[in-house]
Amino acid sequence: MYEIEFSSEALDDLEAFRKFEQQKIVASIEAQLTYEPMMETHNRFRMRPNDVAEWELRIERYRVFYNVETTVQIVSIEVIGLKIGNQLYVRGKRRDL
Fold this sequence. Notes:
2 helices; alpha+beta
């Protein structure tokens, strides 16, 4: 079982969403990433090399970017955003990964 930790940036990202969206995102993170966070699925996959995170989790139109520390079994949530079309928005601003 992996422990889930949110970076301070990810917590700020989460606060930008409405309460029901926050609840949906956190519930999905806990359901999807507590066990086997590195198993690729339709909604969970390894990303191309970038400066943000190694993994992406899709939750409807929301995107969660995370890293996994296997030795200590920690999933570190780095960025949470909203996908509109092919653009990612984090706290209302367009962001490239």
